[in-house]
């Protein structure tokens, strides 16, 4: 009997016990009608071949393990960055359960969003009544300051008109006349979560800015973009801006919403950009986005409103942070203080201390377009060689940007950019052209298991490690965290490779 | 707070009124039908259809718009629960990318096999619909996907097509594609019309998936199989954290032969062969009673519900099952129960003193709101509230056998209601899902995820009970719950001011 009160074994150990192993063998042999062990072994080997890779890359229709989610997730995340705001997703309700679970699994935090719960009758007659009732219930029950509406693919396929529906609901008294209900169409069959983020932010700005006259002030708006590390990152960004003395509005700040304290109270709403500040943000001198691919439509709209705009690709690493700070300094007229220059020097110092362990290391990087871009840039700053850069939601325009970046450094030579490819493609690529390290989300753990290439978790979503998002990865301080994460993996690998008793030369105390 | 049952019943009735008052009138009226306090047990304890409350709770009705329902959709019921765990089939999430992305690898349906070679449970295979697929239809793409999957995964035994919302709305004929391509590749292809807008919850997805097993799997091939009088199927166990394995072990130990597992760690062959069994043993009644009824009608395979949560239910179930197979198996069952009794005693000796008298509120899916009740009772704990996400009336009738009078019962409870109930009742433990976990914990109340076992498990069988007991103890008796109030809040004012 494997189980006992003295030592309770859970799944990780229990099923390795002989009772279970024998049972598995019996099941397989007698009942599963499995493929032969030889066939499995042959196919396992074949999966590692160039031949398989070619067939794999030739796929045109099926997508296997894509590293992207759908638009409404981005919209729900976006809404979480505004004061007292509740997401209302118009469409079938299962989707909302998925978004809430997905974000909760990453942040280990509550995620609030409601659905208008459309079913067959709404598919036939349209979802107007669902909108009228949904807004009324959400408003009365959860007492929000704003209800941010987005859609699922169902509502989009049947062509529900959000603007008209919301106005009708307003007339029917679902919400008061002057209550804010911005909206965005976010069909799941267009783009990905980064686009959903973009249109949701644009919808919110339009709601507050439309028909207003802009009276320019000297402030700067900053849009952080879809960021699973917003808790650590936004706080770091605010610290830097305060240090510089810049007057700014962080538009869409979910750092408090996804980091509420445990003190006996559940806060459904916490922090977020004040609605008055969103309205006033029209008057800013400029709006900058920290993630270009999360804000193209928004920045176009902002430019139309008369502001200067600029976008970055997730300011991670030395050069990317330099660029951001100089732009902020230029726009705000505020100098970059000595304290921050010192921080920069400390990051450079750290890279110099560790450079021998990083120089020439080959990396595969996957994730959202902006993350992959900045990560590749930072890797090159440390003397590493990005070898495969993959974004399932990357476009050909993104691939061109990547090529330009890679061409800017000798360390980018020979790197392949994989726009629109998925993680099953990456599996073949890693077997045929291996790298030293993989950087991406928790989904990379399947690649790590199959290929043996160590995974550094540095983006969204992180399901299987805790609290990573609480620490910044942007700015110079964030750079230290990223650097340390990579180095820890390098050293762990060195130790593991020298850990066989009798063959443990190189098991060094000091490195 | 008071644990006096009569007072509690009155208090809980009042609580229901309180939460309803927060809704617009029309919806308060609709929600009222889903909330109840269970009444005193009927005179005869073994009355089979004991009702739960005076009005009985209404269930399997559309959720009201604009609330945080915890429910999922038909796709979640079919792909996420019934079909997804079948390991040697490829499951295409047919439609846009999201559904497969969010549901992928989250339920921990454990399986043995080489992923990507002869097993595919943790792969996310999708047709990733784009705008042009909505406009022109996805059938052509689906055909091509089948061909590509054959190249990528030649050892797969077949394919299921799990329709997402747009597929039904644009009128694709996935059945025709399935028939055509199945002939071409000479493998089973099962089209499943589980679009998320169908029905009111994941429950319809279970039913639809069961119907596709009936229509596209059973009796489709000649099955060569030498049966024995002791052949059974495990039905409605999804092997979360290895649950079905812990159950299978016990059934094998009492001398039965488990010829198929549905659908945790299942292969297509096991499903095809199921009608050859002598008895179907069903754990999650809600998700798979449909196919059991079909096999009974069509193949004469009787079915029996069982419950492997906690030693009292395990023993009762083993005896009930054994009774179907005669004295020899009955004697084996007694031996097995006796064999595990010392382990059970040791677990109870260790954990019961730490858990005795603790109150629990549950809110889960298919069977657990009633099935786990006795596992808690075995540990000396009391259920003060329970409810289902997607139950039907027969589930609530079954629940009556498990709960005490005065228990708060909530169907399709909304986020708002559950929070208020938890806040006012302040149980010692809440068991629900990921979406409920963090709000409850922030209130300072211990929590266990009872869909996923909080990434622990198994919880089924004797091996599982040990883990269950340990997990409830570690949840409730962790020192963190004592750290919520800073000492200066209790002490003098000067600290408070200093902290401001």
Automatic annotation (TrEMBL), chain A:
Q: Per the record, what are the reactions this protein catalyses?
A: N2 + 8 reduced [2Fe-2S]-[ferredoxin] + 16 ATP + 16 H2O = H2 + 8 oxidized [2Fe-2S]-[ferredoxin] + 2 NH4(+) + 16 ADP + 16 phosphate + 6 H(+)
Q: One Pfam annotation, family name? A: DUF3364
Subunit structure as annotated in this protein's UniProt entry: Tetramer of two alpha and two beta chains. Forms complex with the iron protein (nitrogenase component 2).
Main role? Answer: This molybdenum-iron protein is part of the nitrogenase complex that catalyzes the key enzymatic reactions in nitrogen fixation.
Query: Required co-factor?
Result: [8Fe-7S] cluster
Query: What is the protein's species of origin?
Result: Blastochloris tepida
Where the record annotates domain Nitrogenase molybdenum-iron protein beta chain N-terminal, the positions are 1-56
User: Hey, which family's this protein in?
Assistant: Belongs to the NifD/NifK/NifE/NifN family.
Locate the Nitrogenase/oxidoreductase component domain: which residues? 70-488
MF (Gene Ontology)? ATP binding; iron-sulfur cluster binding; metal ion binding; nitrogenase activity
Fetch the CDD domains from UniProt.
Answer: Nitrogenase_MoFe_beta
Which Gene3D superfamilies does this chain map to?
Nitrogenase molybdenum iron protein domain, Nitrogenase Molybdenum-iron Protein, subunit B, domain 4
The EC number(s) attached to this protein equal: 1.18.6.1
Main enzyme class: oxidoreductase
GO CC annotations?
molybdenum-iron nitrogenase complex
What is written in the cofactor note of this entry? Binds 1 [8Fe-7S] cluster per heterodimer.
| Top-level taxon in the UniProt lineage | Bacteria
* The protein's name: Nitrogenase molybdenum-iron protein beta chain
Q: Give the UniProt keywords, A-Z.
A: ATP-binding, Iron, Iron-sulfur, Metal-binding, Nitrogen fixation, Nucleotide-binding, Oxidoreductase
From TrEMBL, chain B:
Please give the function described in this protein's UniProt entry. This molybdenum-iron protein is part of the nitrogenase complex that catalyzes the key enzymatic reactions in nitrogen fixation.
User: Which InterPro entries does this UniProt record tie to the protein?
Assistant: Nase/OxRdtase_comp1, Nase_comp1_asu, Nase_comp1_CS, Nase_Mo-Fe_asu
For the protein in the UniProt heading, the enzyme class is oxidoreductase
What family does this chain come from, according to its entry?
Belongs to the NifD/NifK/NifE/NifN family.
Alphabetized, the UniProt keywords read: ATP-binding, Iron, Iron-sulfur, Metal-binding, Molybdenum, Nitrogen fixation, Nucleotide-binding, Oxidoreductase
Q: What is this protein called?
A: Nitrogenase protein alpha chain
**Signal sequence range:** none
Give the EC number(s) under which this enzyme is classified: 1.18.6.1
Q: Which organism is it from?
A: Blastochloris tepida
- The Nitrogenase/oxidoreductase component domain sits at 73-474
CC per GO annotation: molybdenum-iron nitrogenase complex
User: According to its UniProt record, which cofactors does this protein need?
Assistant: [7Fe-Mo-9S-C-homocitryl] cluster; [8Fe-7S] cluster
| Reactions it catalyzes | N2 + 8 reduced [2Fe-2S]-[ferredoxin] + 16 ATP + 16 H2O = H2 + 8 oxidized [2Fe-2S]-[ferredoxin] + 2 NH4(+) + 16 ADP + 16 phosphate + 6 H(+)
According to the UniProt entry, its GO molecular function terms are: ATP binding; iron-sulfur cluster binding; metal ion binding; nitrogenase activity
Describe the protein's quaternary organization and the partners it interacts with: Tetramer of two alpha and two beta chains. Forms complex with the iron protein (nitrogenase component 2).
Q: Which domain of life is it from?
A: Bacteria
């Amino acid at each position: 009997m494997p189980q006992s009160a003295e030592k309770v074994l859970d799944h990780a150990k229990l099923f390795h016990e002989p009772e279970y192993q024998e049972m598995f063998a019996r099941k397989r042999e007698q009942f599963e009608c499995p493929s032969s062990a030889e066939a499995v072994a042959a196919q396992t080997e074949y999966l590692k071949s160039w031949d398989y890779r070619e067939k794999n890359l030739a796929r045109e229709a099926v997508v296997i393990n894509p590293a992207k989610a759908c638009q409404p997730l981005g919209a729900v995340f976006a809404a979480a960055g505004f004061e007292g705001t509740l997401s209302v997703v118009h469409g079938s309700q299962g989707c909302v359960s998925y978004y809430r679970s997905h974000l909760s699994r990453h942040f280990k935090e509550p995620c609030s969003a409601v659905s208008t719960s459309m079913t067959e009758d709404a598919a036939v007659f349209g979802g107007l009544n669902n909108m009228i009732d949904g807004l009324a219930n959400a408003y009365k029950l959860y007492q929000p300051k704003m209800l941010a509406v987005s859609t699922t693919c169902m509502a989009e396929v049947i062509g529900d008109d959000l603007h008209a529906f919301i106005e009708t609901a307003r007339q029917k008294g679902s919400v008061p006349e002057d209550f804010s209900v911005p909206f965005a169409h976010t069909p799941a069959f267009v783009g990905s979560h980064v686009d959903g983020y973009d249109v949701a932010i644009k919808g919110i700005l339009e709601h507050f800015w439309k028909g207003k006259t802009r009276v320019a002030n000297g402030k700067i708006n900053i849009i952080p973009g879809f960021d699973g590390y917003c808790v650590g990152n936004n706080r770091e960004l605010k610290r830097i801006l305060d240090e510089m003395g810049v007057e700014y509005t962080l538009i869409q700040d979910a750092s408090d919403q996804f980091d509420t304290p445990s003190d006996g109270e559940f806060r459904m709403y916490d922090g977020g950009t004040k609605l008055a500040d969103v309205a006033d943000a029209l008057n800013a001198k400029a709006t900058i986005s920290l993630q270009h691919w999360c804000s193209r439509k928004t920045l176009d709209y902002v430019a139309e409103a008369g502001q200067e705009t600029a976008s970055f690709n997730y300011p991670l690493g030395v050069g990317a942070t330099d660029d951001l700070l100089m732009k902020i300094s230029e726009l705000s007229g505020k100098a970059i203080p000595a304290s921050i220059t010192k921080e920069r020097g400390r990051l450079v110092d750290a890279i110099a201390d560790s450079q021998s362990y990083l120089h020439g290391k080959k990396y595969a990087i996957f994730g959202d377009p902006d993350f992959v871009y900045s990560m590749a840039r930072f890797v090159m700053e440390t003397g590493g060689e990005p070898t495969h850069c993959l974004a399932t939601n990357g476009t050909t325009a993104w691939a061109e940007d990547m090529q330009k970046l890679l061409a800017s450094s000798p360390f980018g030579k020979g790197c392949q950019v994989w726009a629109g490819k998925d993680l099953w493609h990456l599996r073949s690529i890693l077997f045929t052209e291996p790298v030293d390290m993989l950087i991406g989300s928790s989904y990379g753990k399947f690649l790590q298991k199959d290929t043996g290439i160590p995974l550094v978790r540095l983006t969204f979503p992180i399901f299987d490690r805790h609290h990573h998002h609480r620490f910044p990865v942007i700015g110079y301080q964030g750079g230290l965290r990223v650097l340390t994460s990579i180095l820890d993996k390098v050293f762990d690998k060195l130790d593991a490779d020298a850990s066989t008793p009798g063959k443990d030369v190189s098991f060094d105390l000091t490195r | 707070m008071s644990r006096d049952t009569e007072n509690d019943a009155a208090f809980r009735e009042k609580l229901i009124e309180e939460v309803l008052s927060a809704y617009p009138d029309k919806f308060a009226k609709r929600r009222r039908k889903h909330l109840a306090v269970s009444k005193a047990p009927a005179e005869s304890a073994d009355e089979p259809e004991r009702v739960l409350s005076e009005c009985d709770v209404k269930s399997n009705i559309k959720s009201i718009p604009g609330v945080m329902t915890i429910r999922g959709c038909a796709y979640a019921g079919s792909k996420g629960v019934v079909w997804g765990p079948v390991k040697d089939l490829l499951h295409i999430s047919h439609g846009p990318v999201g559904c497969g992305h969010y549901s992928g690898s989250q339920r921990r349906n454990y399986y043995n096999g080489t992923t990507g070679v002869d097993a595919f449970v943790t792969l996310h295979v999708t047709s990733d619909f784009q705008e042009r697929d909505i406009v022109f239809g996805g059938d052509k793409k689906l055909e091509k996907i089948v061909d590509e999957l054959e190249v990528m995964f030649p050892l797969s035994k077949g394919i299921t097509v799990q329709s997402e919302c747009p597929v039904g709305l644009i009128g694709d004929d996935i059945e025709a594609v399935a028939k055509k391509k199945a002939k071409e590749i000479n493998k089973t292809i099962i089209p499943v019309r589980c679009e998320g807008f169908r029905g009111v919850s994941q429950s319809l997805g279970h039913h639809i998936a069961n119907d596709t097993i009936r229509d596209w799997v059973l009796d489709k091939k000649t099955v060569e199989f030498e049966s024995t009088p002791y052949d059974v199927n495990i039905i409605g166990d999804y092997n979360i954290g290895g649950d079905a394995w812990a159950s299978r072990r016990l059934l094998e130990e009492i001398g039965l032969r488990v010829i198929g597992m549905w659908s945790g760690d299942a292969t297509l062959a096991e499903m095809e062969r199921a009608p050859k069994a002598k008895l179907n043993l069903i754990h999650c009644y809600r998700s798979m009673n449909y196919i059991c009824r079909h096999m009974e009608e069509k193949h004469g395979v009787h079915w029996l519900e069982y419950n492997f949560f906690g030693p009292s239910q395990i023993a009762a179930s083993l005896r009930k099952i054994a009774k179907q197979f005669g004295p020899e198996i009955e004697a084996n069952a007694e031996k097995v129960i006796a064999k595990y009794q010392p382990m059970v005693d040791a677990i109870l000796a260790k954990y019961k003193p730490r858990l005795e008298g603790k109150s629990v509120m549950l809110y889960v899916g298919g069977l657990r709101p009633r099935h786990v009740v006795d596992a808690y009772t075995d540990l000396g704990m009391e259920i003060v509230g329970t409810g289902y996400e997607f139950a039907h009336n027969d589930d609530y009738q079954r629940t009556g056998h498990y709960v005490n009078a005065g228990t708060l019962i909530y169907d399709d409870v909304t986020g708002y209601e559950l929070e208020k109930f938890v806040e006012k009742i302040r149980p010692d433990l809440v068991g629900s899902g990921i979406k409920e976990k963090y709000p409850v914990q922030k209130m300072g109340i211990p929590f266990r995820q009872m869909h996923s076992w909080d990434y622990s498990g198994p919880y089924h069988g004797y091996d599982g009970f040990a883990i269950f007991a340990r997990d409830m103890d570690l949840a409730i008796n962790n020192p963190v719950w004592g750290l919520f109030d800073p000492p200066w809040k209790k002490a003098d004012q000067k600290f408070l001011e200093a902290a401001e």
